[in-house]
Specification:
alpha/beta; 45% helix; 6-stranded parallel beta sheet; binds magnesium ion; single chain; globular; 12% strand; 6 strands; 252 residues; binds 3-methylbut-3-enyl trihydrogen diphosphate; 9 helices
Length: 252
Amino acid sequence: MAEEKTLENVPRHVAIIMDGNGRWAKARGLPRLAGHRAGTENLRPILEASAEFGIEILTIWAFSTENWSRPEVEVRGLLRILQRMIQRDLGELHKQGVQLRYLGRLDRLPEGLQKQVLDAIELTKDNDRIVLNVAFDYGGREEIVQAVQHIIRDGIPAEDVDEALLSSYMYTAGQPDPDLIIRTSGELRTSGFMLWQSAYSEYYITPTFWPDFDKEELYRALEAFGQRDRRFGGIKDDYGSSRQARKGKDKA
Ligand code: IPE
Ligand code: IPE
Ligand code: MG
């Protein structure tokens, strides 16, 4: 098995754009909601694998601020899936040391569901095996807008606004930025996912539809991440020093 090899540079924070549920269902002649259900079933094994691989934070994007524009039956189905997931899986997630966080607007969810989400966050807040950020009614632009609104409401003077302050007003306050962002189903766009936090994230795009994305493929994504040359705008020491050496030679 692939996992027998040791992974190098395991990312602390992995974020997944779980895309392709609809096409997965269509390919099987099933309704789109069957794809969403299959996608939901895939969450637990990927969360478990993430914890095993040593990932500290797993973010999953389940519903965007734009997804409200889908047919009502699909939107209602997706809300029901979130509700059922909390009802059915919360106890087990808590037992396994999963800390739940919610990224997105809570105020537009049905009231009962809002309460379930808040209770789940409260119940699991001291767990420390892995953090699961559930991004629901999440949009990257919306997140920045709400941060700016909060900053203004808090009466913060303009000269005190800097990158660290803005980060502390994002839904991910206190968490490291995602090191690796995975998008399933092959789309080459972010759709606004983690606009603020993704400045230096590495991307891994796979044609696999989310319900088929498995532990093996997560391993391959982590392996690919381990090979990436992250420079954060700087230059690598060896490159810098070889340039220095060449300069010295040129002079001689
Ligand atoms: C991702 O799957 C889940 C949500 C956006 C809710 P999609 O529903 O976008 O599936 P495709 O992209 O239509 O295949
Ligand atoms: C992004 O997928 C949102 C989620 C995966 C939850 P979409 O399917 O909504 O994105 P677009 O419309 O293809 O950009
Ligand atoms: Mg999609």
